[in-house]
Write a structure and sequence with these properties.
Helices cover 46% and strands 17% of the residues. By secondary structure, it is an alpha/beta fold.
Length: 413
Amino acid sequence: MMSQKNLTSRRRSSVGVDVGPIKIGGGAPVVVQSMTNTDTVDVVATTEQVAQLARAGSELVRITVNSADAAKAVPGIRQRLDDIGCHVPLVGDFHFNGHKLLSSYPECAQSLAKFRINPGNVGKGKKRDEQFTTLIETACKYDKPIRIGVNWGSLDQEMLARIMDENASSSDPKDATYVMREALITSALESAAKAEEIGLLRNRIVLSCKVSGVQDLIMVYRELAARCDYALHLGLTEAGMGSKGIVASTAALSILLQEGVGDTIRISLTPEPGGSRSREVIVAQEILQTMGLRAFVPLVAACPGCGRTTSTYFQELAESIQGYVREEMIVWREQYEGVENMTLAVMGCVVNGPGESKHANVGISLPGSGESPVAPVYVDGEKTVTLKGDNIAAEFRQIVENYVQEKYPRKAG
């Protein structure tokens, strides 16, 4: 198994971009970000969702700024977040009218830590150049970084037509898929070069080229990474709902991250009706943590179950413990050093239970079908106690809490 150190050493070299206190690229850990789906005009709802995403572990949160009322609301959202002690940087997502909004509402521009623009919908012809210039000059004026985010669903049609013509006249024309990929990359690189000409520094630019197909995303980012040293934002666009979105995002991003490509990630999941927006943050964290790139919360190992585990008790306990450590991490991460590296195991029978439990910092081996109704607990490989009765879950949670307090040093202050 490749160590975290080896994976980190393989990362592509990129120019670091400061977004408030968060650094993207330049050797910094891969940053997790997300986006609200509230109406930005609703200051209360947007503030609540930003705070929820930040508590879940989103290190940047993007909000839609699509109207004058939304732009007016941004300073109030920033103030409310600061008032409750939530200082997560806000990224403004601008399409079509961003040049007008940023020019007309300077308080909005100042309240945001970063702008996201799409070169495919900045404007057309001469207006495109003028409006793009306005966006870049505003970023320079307020010293804000910009993500130039190209999407395959909204490519600059003039640029796409140019590349299609060049390909058609080539002695070795490529297929339509190649042309689409090349158009994405060209749009991003030409826009970044234009931004630098206008005056935006290289360390204020992040690039992305988003598509919804796994293989297309991998090919596009491999090529983009080879042709520049800008910091790169990874993510499938319209990844989908539920397991489809999770699997597709994991398949694409894991390959690129393993190759050292990517400085910040967002998992664009469609929430189920009534589902939590925070799920996309958890998935992003779990991708990075299971790959050994970062640690966010203690990992809980649990067996899948079989005919030896007809009781659902170990499943219920595993779910309970996983939820418990995520909730407690809000407090633990503020109080203790290194607790995110803790490992836990909740196993369902004697076959692998004791062995897996011994490999975790804290593990419990629950009885399978026909086994004695007792549950040995192992702490750092040593059996410490055997639990039984109706309070196993509460007693095991207390053992975990005691382990955290005893094993991890408290942070200064």
